[in-house]
Amino acid sequence: MNRSVLISGCSGGGKSTLLAELAARGHAVVEEPGRRIVSQEAEGDGAALPWVNMAAFARRAIEMAITDHAAAPEQSGWTFFDRGLIDAAAALQHLTGEPILEKLSVAHRYHQRVFLTPPWPEIYTTDPERRHGFDEAVAEYDRLAAIYPMLGYDVFMLPKISVADRADFILDCLSRETRQQ
């Protein structure tokens, strides 16, 4: 069984906070490639920052996500990803028109169930690593919400509830699936 679970959705929708909760419960988590790239680029020349060169940023995110995905089977139990390959490939394809998404998504599959954080303006904030506005975040979310089902994933929308309850929701969904097999 594929135990690499994607948590995607709207930027600023609570993904990173949710992954911190899952990590505190003992689960393996993989931080969003984008945040790691921004941190690395801020220490270097900054050529692949999303507000400098979005295509270069997306290509770096794809490379990082492929590496992250390959490392996940070494973990026992569930591994939760804050975004991943599909998000990065969707961004690059949207920017450049390169038909990269389907090829990469077939070669590097995640667990069948993908959990999406919906737009949640009440918790949305910008920060040094998230400079885009809420409207841009919603547009990205809309693209991802359409892409995941087209790639054959079952999308589960995370309810707008507390972080602990969101973690329970995900773990309950995965637990029910495991019991049914």
UniProtKB/TrEMBL annotation:
Coiled coil: none
InterPro entries given in the database record: NadR/Ttd14_AAA_dom, P-loop_NTPase
SUPFAM superfamilies according to UniProt: P-loop containing nucleoside triphosphate hydrolases
Domain NadR/Ttd14 AAA: 5-166
Superkingdom of this protein's organism: Bacteria
A Pfam family it matches: AAA_28
Protein name (record): NadR/Ttd14 AAA domain-containing protein
Source species taxonomy: Bacteria, Pseudomonadati, Pseudomonadota, Alphaproteobacteria, Hyphomicrobiales
